[in-house]
Amino acid sequence: PASRCSCVSSTRTPASKRKMSATHSLEGSFTVESDKCTYTADSIISDYTYETTVVEGNVIKPVETSMQFKTQRNVGKVGVMLVGLGGNNGSTCVAGALANKMGLTWDTKEGTQNANYWGSMMMASTVKLGNDPRGNAVFTPMSNVLPMLHPNDIVWGGWDISSMNLGDAMKRSKVLDIDLQRKLYPHMKDMAPLPSAYFPDFIAANQGERADNVLKGSKQEQMEQIRKDIREFKAKNGLDDVIILWTANTERFASVEEGINDTAENLLESIKRGEAEVSPSTVFAVASILEGSLYINGSPQNTFVPGVLELARQHKVFVAGDDFKSGQTKMKSVLTDFLVSAGIKPVSIVSYNHLGNNDGMNLSAPSQFRSKEISKSNVVDDMVASNRILFEEDEHPDHVVVIKYVPYVADSKRAMDEYTSEIFMGGKNTIVMHNTCEDSLLATPLIYDLVILGELCKRISVKREGEDKWESFHPVLSLLSYMLKAPLVPSGAPVVNALFTQRCAVINVMRACLGLAPDNHMTLEHKFESTLASMQNHGEPAHKKARTC
To answer: How far from 320 is each of 334, 472, 473, CA to CA, in Å?
Structure first.
């Protein structure tokens, strides 16, 4: 009989000496050596073939689009103005950047802690560049792929309805370790927020006692003052660019009304008239757009009424939102994607939160909670709609979100989730998750990420084959969706909530800027004897074999 090849386990290496899967790290700068990528003093220009697939009935058609990407290499000096500068997120954001810039260390009960940017995708995660000649994967920090803004270099400023200086605001928030607070206080005590817009009807009444630093005059006058603040901040600090980010209280939803905020013209006239349904966040968005500054909404309210979006398109200014995706919702977008992709049908998702910071107190008001409930509830929609084997048209899991204010827990938010799913042959599966998350320490790195990626997008332009004009991204900057609960997308574009799909979009756009193909996980070089043998001829083989044949 013909002999058979039998697979035999290789000799096991003791766990203490066993190597991890072979990966190498590239920390320094690198150059792409390809006729598809050209470096000039000012730009990186790449030739790229965008491959998509069009489905027409039962016919599948691969489509290729040739285009060029141009990325400006000079980052420039950037300032960020936070709306809500004196809140938990705002004060923690400035404190974290200062601590990293000064290289601070501080004592905790666990030992000495060093400043870091952990929790930031742009600053603390890596991306795969490719393989070395032996087949080992090579990773590099995401911040190393293209010229990027560094949080240490940002000039910080902004507005708050509370006049408290940032040193005392940091103490009030009780987010950072006390030893770090002591070291940062001398550097923050002289930083004070500018007066902010305060329309009591839009936030909870319990915020009134903090509102001692508010703009005066009509809505038009307040908007003009905000524009003046942006111009003066830019001039005073010698900035090339200013980015505005809302990290203030959640507002109630504004009513979208014909003749009020449905068009750019109507919205500008409504601000002049002082219409009641123009919210503070919308006033800031309009001021930012008129000053040519990227505006990012980190809260769940509907800041971007149709008139704002039309104004952004008219002025070709980027806007992005809505609502920081930091804890429970981020986990939900991962777990639901896993369940549906595994052919398991989630039928009930119940999410409960309680927190005790000022955000929690504001959300204890029903109209503000409703804004948050809406942004949290839609996160699974695209994943459910992707699987018509499990879900009928318009069928959705039961999805309930509860948020309660518990002062004692302060910034240490508790999130409890129950996922009930239908499995094989009528069986049921229940997953229960408890998540204790320090709210501002998860949200703050998202602020850095939104600013870094938003600034990068302003330096990227695209030109399709046969065209002469370079084109920027659409003013609604959906590439920032990874950091946001309820991603704002251009009209007619699909909303994507699946977390790793969002991250892949960021990485593959960056690769396109270098003329590199999208990363995939086929690893065909490791699946055929001929290619494995070729790699072994380059020296030590990749350390990935647990069994030999």
So the answer is: 22, 15, 12
pLDDT for position 18: 42
End-to-end CA distance of the chain: 20
The Cα 518–Cα 503 span in angstroms is: 12
Residue by residue, DSSP assigns 315-367 as: HT--EE-S-B--SHHHHHHHHHHHHHHTT-EEEEEEEEEEE-SHHHHHHTSHH
Residue with tokens 């005073």: 236
Phi, psi at residue 171, to the nearest 5°? Answer: -65, -45
Q: What are the beta bridge partners of residue 352?
A: 402, 416
Identify the H or E element spanning 500: helix 499-512
List the one residue out of 463, 499, 498, 493 whose CA is nearest residue 475: 493
For residue 424, the 8-state DSSP code is G
pLDDT of 239: 98
pLDDT for 234 equals 98
Position of tokens 């630093």?
Answer: 213
Q: Which residues pair with 47 in a beta bridge?
A: 68
Rg of the chain over all Cα atoms, to the nearest angstrom? 25
C-alpha 353/C-alpha 341 separation (Å) is 27
Taking residue 423's Cβ as centre, other Cβ atoms within 10 Å add up to: 13
Q: How many CB atoms lie within 10 A of CB 140?
A: 18
The CA distance from 111 to 176, in Å, is: 15
Structure tokens at 32: 């792409």
Distances (CA, A) of 9 to 13, 17, 18, 548: 12, 18, 15, 6
Residue 205, Ramachandran bin (φ over 0: left; ψ between -120 and 50: alpha; else beta): alpha
Residue 386 to residues 343, 396, 508, Cα–Cα distance (Å): 11, 12, 22
Distance CA 242, CA 289 (A): 11
Task: Give the residue numbers marked as catalytic.
Answer: 323, 372, 413, 485
**Structure pTM?**
0.89
What are the per-10-residue average pLDDT scores of the chain (549 residues)? 35 43 84 96 97 96 97 98 97 98 97 97 96 90 97 98 98 96 98 96 84 96 98 98 95 92 97 96 98 96 95 98 88 92 96 80 63 67 92 92 87 90 96 90 96 98 95 97 94 91 96 94 87 75 47
How many Cβ atoms sit within 10 Å of the Cβ of residue 493? 12
Tokens of residue 332, six digits? 């939900």
Contact 336, 501 (CB under 8 A): no
Residue that the structure tokens 């939102």 belong to: 321
